[in-house]
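Narrative of accomplishments. A recurring question from our advisory board has been how the design workflow behaves on a single, concrete structure rather than in aggregate. To address it, we present the structure tokens for one chain from the evaluation set, followed by the sequence designed for it. No filtering or post-editing was applied between the two.
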């Protein structure tokens, strides 16, 4: 269920990104409240890619809300469904895919994302996350007496995995367009960065041999 987005202007840089992606998608990763849906929607518009929120897809596939899935079937069932939905969505690239905060913790999902997408971590501080998630009550993991402690624990457990993404974006409280601009630049840099010399010098097999 992708959202139809009205394209804004498209620069040569954005067109180059889309051409370089080919069938690969851009996958946003990060904690709840990091801005994956908000930034993802705007970034999709800039790149003229369909935006898909994995959480919405899971709810549509299950015919129930995420809090209900957690309550009725439990978190392991949700995680299996989440992995299946993401695997399916990655087959239909290029798309801009926002994933739920726990999705990247699974090895099978990480390896699919590595194969089929460029991954981008929207990294937000605990206080920013807490402020943002307080506005909504639809995150079952935070429906308890001490959401700040849960966020701290999740950050500690998840950041080492999020660090494995291709691109890091500092998601802070600045206008959304600024984060989107930075994301476009980072994507372009990632896709067009010069290859290291060691990857180019092949004849001797010795990366340190001088090129004359
Ligand atoms: C979760 C994050 C949520 C949703 C579910 C579990 C998590 O998505 O998938 O509530 O484990 O961090 P968002 O990151 O989009 O809030």
């Amino acid at each position: 269920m992708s959202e139809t987005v009205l394209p804004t202007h498209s620069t040569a840089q954005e067109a180059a990104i889309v051409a370089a992606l080919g069938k690969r998608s851009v996958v946003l990763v990060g904690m709840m409240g990091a801005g994956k849906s908000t930034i993802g929607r705007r970034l999709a518009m800039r790149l003229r890619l369909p935006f898909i929120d994995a959480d919405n897809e899971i709810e549509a596939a299950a015919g129930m809300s995420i809090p209900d899935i957690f309550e009725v079937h439990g978190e392991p069932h949700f995680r299996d469904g989440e992995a299946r939905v993401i695997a399916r969505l990655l087959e239909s690239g290029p798309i801009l895919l926002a994933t739920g905060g726990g999705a990247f913790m699974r090895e099978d999902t990480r390896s699919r994302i590595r194969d089929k997408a460029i991954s981008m971590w929207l990294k937000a501080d605990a206080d920013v996350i807490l402020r943002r998630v307080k506005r909504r009550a639809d995150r079952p993991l935070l429906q308890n007496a001490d959401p700040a402690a849960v966020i701290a624990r999740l950050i500690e457990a998840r950041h080492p995995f999020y660090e494995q993404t291709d691109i890091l974006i500092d998601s802070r409280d600045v206008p959304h367009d600024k984060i989107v601009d930075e994301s476009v630049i980072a994507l372009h840099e990632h896709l067009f960065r010069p290859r290291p010399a060691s990857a180019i010098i092949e004849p001797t097999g010795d990366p340190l041999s001088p090129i004359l």
